């Protein structure tokens, strides 16, 4: 009996050790990345229901021309009931780029980010049932985007522009586009502490929240996003509210105003 | 256990009987096949590939002009690596035993000046802005070129120009030129017009059948420079990339492409598109067939769109 329990304890210990670095669901990664299982556990919380899914489209140039501004389009409109999209890289000092909670918007987002090295990039999409669907692509890069100082500091008026928003709505195509001026310092450049926008909330005129973004360090300097709405359900205006980690408030209103 | 002698005999027999494949470390050293083609009396052109940098082409994508000077040959632009400069030096001794007497760099991009190292003891002439930009960007360019070209770059160190050129009428190794200090492709673009033949060496202000590149471009300034070059009405133009141009087509084509690029990006910003969506835009037929497309269009979207878009979208607070 004693011997039996010892074996049981050893068995439990072994399976616990196993669980620490092996996810509950082991997937066949199309990119054979050495980091995906780690992120599946660490970024997504080791979900029990997860798969790679071609319906999640992640589109980017094959090579990053500008490591500070890599464009990315994530499109999960082929899935229903999307609640959250986690966008991340496998390789880089800070893997998570952002979480997008589309709410009343389409589960589709255009963004830019800073890249530190060649890496797979993933969009992990959680639906209402708790199932995760993961899409991705590969980006080659010379790198250095995350560990360099913001380019804003090359000019001396960056503080005056902090939090400036440029953007508008296009009702016919259901687009809302905005650029927010912010250095988005990763904290990885020598002597420059973390300074990022942490959150952007989008609401209609009656204050109802329509969509939300939770930003991490790798989002590009002067973050630029396109949100997509069903044109029939496009609000006539969109309030943008957010804050950075130094408590600066960000506030603006996107309308269908003609461009300059 | 066989004796040592027996083992050696066995080894010798095996070596005699089997032709072993050449081990990887014995692969032939990468080498450039540079062919100076005569284009006008006393002038040769080494024409580069119209592709982007690759480990197949070793970065030999640039055009070099070679002109007879009084004490040797004048070379305009020196290629992408130390090894390219060495090949240039060796090849040109077949045209003039005295070799290269002076070097000119049209601008500070690495495919135009990374062969300078081989000619460091000779005058390397450029605009002052080019010298400064080569000094401040050289190391970053070098990192990227090693990444793109690998072993082709072995031993290459960026050597900036060492002599600032005067403008207007200049003499280089006894040969007379008009030097035009222009800009637009970069912040300092030198164009030389050869007094004897009228040949215009346009650097990267002119491309022909190869997509123009824009990493440091200012499109409006570039167009103004192209107007200046049109007015020269040169009988032949040696573009930075692409074949020799005897009709002025390189200036017209470069201008038309930059106009299209600017209009396409402006319209995209006005309709709320982001960079990935713009990159999916099919190129018009007249530009789709250019060398290095659509890659250069995609690169240009990255270079130009963020600033252009910010200027176009209205303030929202």
Highlighted features:
heterodimer; A: 260 residues; mainly beta; Immunoglobulin-like; nine-stranded mixed sheet; six-stranded antiparallel sheet; 12% helix; globular; B: 317 residues; alpha/beta; Metallo-beta-lactamase, Chain A; seven-stranded mixed sheet; five-stranded mixed sheet; 9 helices; 12 strands; RibonucZ/Hydroxyglut_hydro (chain B)
Describe this structure in words.
The complex is a heterodimer of chains A (260) and B (317). By secondary structure, chain A is mainly beta. Chain A has one domain (46-254): Immunoglobulin-like (Sandwich). Chain A is 12% helix and 36% strand. Chain A has helices spanning 2-21, 36-42, 158-161; strands spanning 50-52, 57-59, 70-75, 82-89, 96-101, 108-113, 119-127, 132-139, 165-170, 175-180, 197-203, 209-215, 224-228, 238-244, 249-254. Chain A has a nine-stranded mixed β-sheet, with no helix packed on it. Chain B is of the alpha/beta class and 317 residues long. Chain B has a domain at 31-248: 4-Layer Sandwich (Metallo-beta-lactamase, Chain A), CATH 3.60.15.10. Chain B contains nine helices and twelve strands. Chain B has a seven-stranded mixed β-sheet with strand order 1-2-3-4-5-6-7. In chain B, helix 5 runs antiparallel to helix 6 (249-270) and helix 6 crosses helix 9 (295-312). Chain B is globular and about 65 Å long. The model of chain B is unreliable at 10-20 (pLDDT under 50).
Short overview:
Chain B: Belongs to the metallo-beta-lactamase superfamily. Class-B beta-lactamase family. Chain A is mainly beta.
The CATH superfamily of chain A turns out to be: SoxY domain
Largest interface: A-B, 39 and 30 residues
- How many helix segments of chain B? 9
Cα-to-Cα separation, first versus last residue of chain B: 88 Å
Count of separate structural domains of chain A: 1
Mean model confidence by pLDDT of chain A:
90
Name the overall outline of chain A. Answer: globular
CATH C-level label of chain A: Mainly Beta
Find the structural class of chain B using helix and strand composition. Answer: alpha/beta
Rg of Cα set of chain A: 20 Å
Superfamily (CATH H level) name of one domain in chain B: Ribonuclease Z/Hydroxyacylglutathione hydrolase-like
User: Strands of the largest sheet of chain A, in order across it?
Assistant: 1-8-7-4-5-12-11-14-15
CATH topology tier name of one domain in chain B: Metallo-beta-lactamase, Chain A
InterPro entries (chain B): Metallo-B-lactamas, NDM-1-like, RibonucZ/Hydroxyglut_hydro, SoxH-rel_PQQ_1, TAT_signal
Protein name (chain B): Quinoprotein relay system zinc metallohydrolase 1
Keywords (chain B): Hydrolase, Signal
GO molecular function (chain B): hydrolase activity
